């Protein structure tokens, strides 16, 4: 289960980075933030499963040098095949589908650990859905922008 969650964290991080690379709008930024929150809650799930925190300097940081790099971060962002050939509406639609696939992969994950683990799992789901919603809001914003031209 830990390996599955870590793989999901990499995929969520990658999707967030692809979204951030598009262009800037409130909706794009909010979608990316929601994905990073989903990833953070997956980290809580890992902690609940006994995985040690990768942030060993918690409470002991004195300078930037003491800040650990983000765990499960894609160092090289992987874009969907042919992504550069699509317009922004198509790109957003593709990313909404990528998030839907990630949501599907989280379904059926069962955890012991009681309330905290259940809350973490629900927060993962909530933030993944929110990320998808924000991209839908961006599509609406683009439609309205186009109709005003």
Outline:
64% of the residues lie in helices and 0% in strands. By secondary structure, it is an all-alpha fold.
- Assembly category: single chain
Residue windows where pLDDT falls under 50 for at least 5 positions:
none
Helix fraction, binned, reads 55-70%
Instruction: Tell me, rounded to a whole number, the average pLDDT.
Output: 93
Strand composition percent: under 5%
Q: What is the 3D shape?
A: globular
Q: Helix count, per DSSP?
A: 4
Number of strands: 0
Main sheet properties = none
Structural class: mainly alpha
How large is the radius of gyration? 17 Å
The N- and C-terminal alpha carbons lie at a distance of 50 Å
- For the record, the count of structural domains works out to 1
Element-level helix/strand string: HHHH
């Amino acid at each position: 289960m830990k390996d599955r969650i870590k793989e999901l964290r990499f995929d969520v991080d990658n999707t967030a980075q692809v979204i951030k690379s598009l262009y800037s709008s409130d909706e794009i930024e909010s979608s990316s933030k929601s994905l990073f929150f989903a990833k953070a809650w997956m980290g809580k799930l890992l902690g609940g499963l006994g995985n040690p925190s990768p942030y060993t300097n918690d409470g002991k940081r004195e300078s930037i040098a003491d800040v650990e790099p983000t765990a499960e971060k894609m160092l090289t962002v992987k874009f969907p095949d042919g992504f550069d050939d699509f317009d922004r509406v198509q790109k957003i639609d593709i990313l909404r589908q990528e998030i839907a696939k990630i949501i599907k992969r989280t379904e059926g994950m069962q955890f012991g650990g009681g309330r905290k683990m259940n809350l973490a799992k629900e927060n993962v789901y909530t933030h993944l859905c929110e990320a998808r919603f924000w991209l839908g809001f961006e599509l609406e914003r683009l439609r309205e922008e186009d109709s005003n031209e």
